[in-house]
Write a structure and sequence with these properties.
With about 350 residues, this protein is of the alpha+beta class. It contains 11 helices and 13 strands.
């Protein structure tokens, strides 16, 4: 078979970092408004831009940390959580409104400075090497948590903290009720299900973003659109996904692989993704599995899968190696996984 050229990859960070067991306790003298009167003030011209886009291709504005005003709260296990001040006020209003309906949430994490992110990157690089660090740590300066406007929630069910992602994701009805109230307090759900190729992250029902404008938040929510699309940072259309009829993998297993591909694709900016399809069980061979392990000798992969992608490039491709304003079809993506691990993008290209 024809071998693909090896391309060094940063794996998609579709899974959030494990959440810390905590409950909210306020040690700031921050006044709380009535939950029936959500804040609607627009961002001040001399302060931060509450509509700023920070993602895998859009860095934190250079002067952001100098302008940012934050408060600190201490959770029940003694952890300090730092939040942009107005976002925290709005969060308290949201929290009160939810408690009125016997839904209990708490704040796990919010702001993480660029310096902290760089420190984590340096530590991982020193201990595990640059390649591993690049695959597992978000690039400093490109995390929405730098803004102080991105909040990670967790649930409290029958008085017990539910903090693990795999546990929280099961409470779909509760998250739906929470999401229905976000816009009333200037928040949006940031990482929507199925939109990983745009946001760069898998669905996270707990990750909300404050934008300081109730009307705009309601518009974004009612349209079911991503923040990127609303701001015009992504202009592509609908994506067709074909999982085929595999006798080796379940559709859920193939969906997990597609999420990894779409998250990696998000690094490409305004490339219009058309379709992704399963290449078929005929690609699941010992020869291809051997090839995956040759590309990543320390991985010990046990399974391999191939997908084919169609996309169209923009007129200005920037630093990308694609041709401008061109269609690409059957662009190959190869993924592999270990017996107890998730899918990893190992190689892609023609």
């Amino acid at each position: 078979m024809k071998k693909l050229s090896i391309i060094s990859l940063l794996l998609c960070l579709c899974l959030t970092v494990t959440m810390v067991l905590s409950a909210c306790g306020d040690n700031e003298n921050t006044s709380k408004s009535s939950p029936d009167e959500p804040a609607t003030q627009a961002a001040e011209s001399d302060g931060i831009d509450y509509m700023a886009l920070v993602n895998k291709t859009h860095p934190l504005p250079d002067d952001w940390e100098e302008k940012l005003e934050t408060v600190h709260m201490t959770n029940s296990v003694g952890d300090d959580v730092e939040v942009e001040k107005k976002a925290y006020d709005a969060y308290l209003e949201l929290k009160a409104a939810l408690e009125a309906e016997d839904i209990h949430v708490d704040l796990d994490s919010a702001r993480r400075s660029v310096a902290d992110q760089q420190r984590i990157m340096d530590e991982f690089t020193e201990e595990y090497g640059a390649d591993y660090a690049a695959k597992t740590v978000a690039k400093p300066g490109y995390s929405e948590h730098h803004t102080g406007l991105a909040l990670d929630l967790y649930l409290i069910i029958d008085g017990k903290d539910v903090v693990e992602n795999e546990d929280m994701i099961q409470y779909t009805d509760i998250w739906a009720k929470i999401h229905s109230k976000l816009a009333d307090y200037g928040f949006i759900l940031r990482y929507l299900d199925g939109e990983e190729h745009i946001t760069g992250y898998g669905y996270e029902p707990w990750h909300i973003r404050y934008i300081d404008n109730v009307d705009t938040a309601k518009e974004i929510t009612s349209k079911g659109t991503t923040f990127e699309e609303y701001l015009g940072a992504y202009t592509g259309g609908d994506v067709s996904i074909d999982y085929g009829n595999s006798e080796i993998y379940t559709e859920d297993e193939l969906k997990d692989a597609v999420i990894q591909i779409k998250c990696k694709f998000a690094f490409w900016g305004d490339v219009d993704l058309k379709s992704i399809k399963y290449a078929g069980d005929e690609a699941v061979t010992d020869e291809n599995l051997k090839w995956m392990n040759e590309l990543a000798p320390d991985a010990n992969y046990t399974q391999v899968v191939e997908f084919l992608m169609d996309f169209h490039t923009p007129k200005d491709v920037g630093e990308m190696t694609f041709n401008a304003d061109s269609d690409y079809t059957d662009y190959q993506w190869w993924l592999a996984r270990t017996a107890d691990g998730g899918w990893e993008v190992v190689s892609f290209g023609y």
